[in-house]
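INTERNAL AUDIT FORM
Audit reference: QA-55
Scope: verify that the stored structure record matches its stored sequence.
Auditor: D.O.
Record contents follow.
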Amino acid sequence: MLVSRASLDLDIDPEEFDVLEPRIYGNASTQLPLLQITDHLVNGAGFCRNLWESTNSDSPPITRMISSMLGDCQSSADVLATVGGDAEKLPYPLGEVLADGHNDCDTACYRCLLRYGNQPLHGILDWQLGAAFLRALVDPQFRCGLDGDFDFWGIERWPNLASQLAEQMAERFPGQVGEFAGVPAFRVSLGRAVSPWVLVTHPLWDWDDDGELKGGTILAKAREEAGAYGDPLSWDTFNLARRQVRVREWIRTAPGV
């Protein structure tokens, strides 16, 4: 998403940038995600330098670019209201993902993220997850729905997506669907037995850390409610949308199942 936007702003081909594998930066006490983008040319063409080099502003161009991409972290309706409902007037990626013809895209398509040059990545690209990740980088207060607030265009579709994936799993591997504290869940057949409840989580949620959210997160509450039926498991929508058979095998071989 960043490369696509940067190429538009600089009026260059997206292939002028190489996206390197992200990694964790820092030490044991402070670990931060690091996104790496380089110029495609070996000696550099100066495009990446242009993204971080400040001119007349205190913030580098890429920071302002991300802020513009997030649309002030508003809902789809509020973002569209700023342009009178005409999505074509919005900057990338807002104009593409909020367009009327984009309602059936939950991950990526040729109208938003896919292009010929990034074919090796087509299986993992996800505009909703990308938007949530970018906001998590710049907004320390963002909880990605753990506080029950999904009023942001990058995650507002996620509850429906999670429910759909739970239904698909229960249909593909005969089981049942449920919901705990607003978090969709499912159980699947494991031969003669049935699996524990599996909570459908967002890829950015931390299963092992309830954080410092006052009153607890919806995930913590869902685990507590589902715990009345045994120790629940969890799988995120990224995996459930791409490899359901493999997820079923992971569930079958989980400790205690």
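Auditor finding: record pair retrieved intact. The mean pLDDT is 92.
Action required: none
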